[in-house]
Design goal:
Blueprint lengths: L22 E3 L18 H11 L7 H17 L2 E8 L5 H8 L6 E12 L2 H8 L6 E4 L12 E7 L8 H11 E12 L1 H7 L3 H8 L3 H12 L7 H9 L4 E10 H21 L6 H8 L1 H4 L5 H22 L6 E9 L5
Parallel strand pairs: 2-3, 2-5, 3-4, 5-6
Antiparallel strand pairs: 1-7, 6-8, 7-8
Length: 340
């Protein structure tokens, strides 16, 4: 509502400029203001700030880090959360911490929030529990969230639901724990990402003898991707659990996806192939000791190396992104009605 102080987005009036390309406005009740510094869509300084925040512990997974830059940038630029928040698939908490500690922390301010985490990984959830960010962290599956119904203002899931084969039960639980008018904010790989992988002839030659479908299936298996989303698929999925999309944006431009693809295939791709495509990259890192080793390298060294490697790539993406026609990421905000 225009006068609702709990609305998670600033209100866009008739005098405001048109929204930037890539932003789709669904509802006029809770529309986002387009500010002058948002017209460029992507901010080099913000991406570099996120890079500095996340560099430590990612020295052996630069592709994942590169993807995270664009996810978090979109979240920081387009969302604001307050009140009691469920972090669905919180991992070790570092990504969420970066969202709340960014230069726009007045939009996502952890001091005005109570965060509850949930993650099935024992080690990651234990780390999140000691981070000081969360009121509590549950180590369990998201299809049976141990929280009361109608108890959260927001649920937040960053690159989570694409990894869940049977996602309907999880979304039903999200809807259950959200308060009336509560919002579910999530990022996922888009249908555009899937299309880009299915047209990647260069890498298909390297990994699947030129078979594009086989290469795409290999990417899905390596990343544990079970779903890709666009507006129509997300709308139908959310409608089934009583949620309605009120805001969405496609992010992660094609040039960034292609850069990620090159980094990923040169690192995790060849490791995945070396291990017979039987272990996911995270499991390979654990098996080889790289996961532990990356936390022994001083943070300043990791930041310096990753900045030198990724900043030129960020600049190239920013120069190309306005010409890109496809985006690899999808961000949506879905609202629970005031009454059911």
């Amino acid at each position: 509502m225009a006068g609702d102080s709990n609305c998670p987005f600033r209100i866009k009036t008739a005098k405001d400029p048109a929204p930037p390309a890539g932003l789709r406005l669904i509802s006029r009740e809770c529309l986002m203001q387009t500010e002058q510094d948002e017209d460029s869509m992507l901010s080099y300084s913000t991406l570099c700030h996120i890079l500095n925040d996340l560099a430590f512990g990612n020295i052996f997974q630069p592709a994942t880090l590169f993807w995270r830059l664009f996810e978090i940038e979109a979240l920081v630029r387009k969302t604001r959360m307050r009140g009691r928040i469920l972090d669905l698939g919180c991992g070790d908490g570092r990504v969420t911490s970066t969202v709340f500690s960014s230069k726009r922390s007045s939009w996502n301010d952890s001091r005005s929030c109570t965060l509850v985490g949930i993650d099935p990984d024992v080690e990651d959830s234990a780390t999140a529990r000691t981070s000081g960010l969360y009121e509590k962290v549950h180590t369990c599956s998201a299809n049976a969230i141990p929280e009361e119904s109608n108890s959260f203002d927001f649920c937040f899931a960053n690159s989570v639901i694409e990894h869940i084969p049977d996602v309907d039960d999880v979304l039903a639980e999200v809807s259950r724990v959200l308060k009336p008018n509560g919002k579910f904010i999530f990022t996922v790989p888009s249908s555009g990402f899937d299309r880009l992988m299915k047209t990647s002839r260069f890498w298909a030659e390297k990994f699947s003898r030129g078979n594009l479908e086989e290469y795409s299936r290999m990417i899905d298996a390596r990343l544990a991707h079970y779903h890709y989303y666009d507006h129509n698929k997300a709308e139908a999925m959310l409608k089934n659990v009583g949620l309605e999309i009120v805001q969405e944006e496609y992010y992660f431009p094609e040039s960034a996806v292609r850069t990620w693809e090159s980094i990923s295939n040169h690192t995790a791709g060849y490791l995945y192939k070396l291990f017979g495509s039987n272990l996911k990259p995270h499991a390979i890192q654990k098996k080889t000791g790289l996961l532990r080793l990356q936390y022994t390298v001083p943070g300043t060294v990791q930041t310096s190396i990753l900045s030198s490697f990724l900043r030129p790539k960020i600049k190239r993406v920013l120069r190309s992104s306005r010409r890109d026609k496809t985006s690899g990421g999808y961000l949506a905000v879905a609202q629970k009605p005031s009454t059911i």
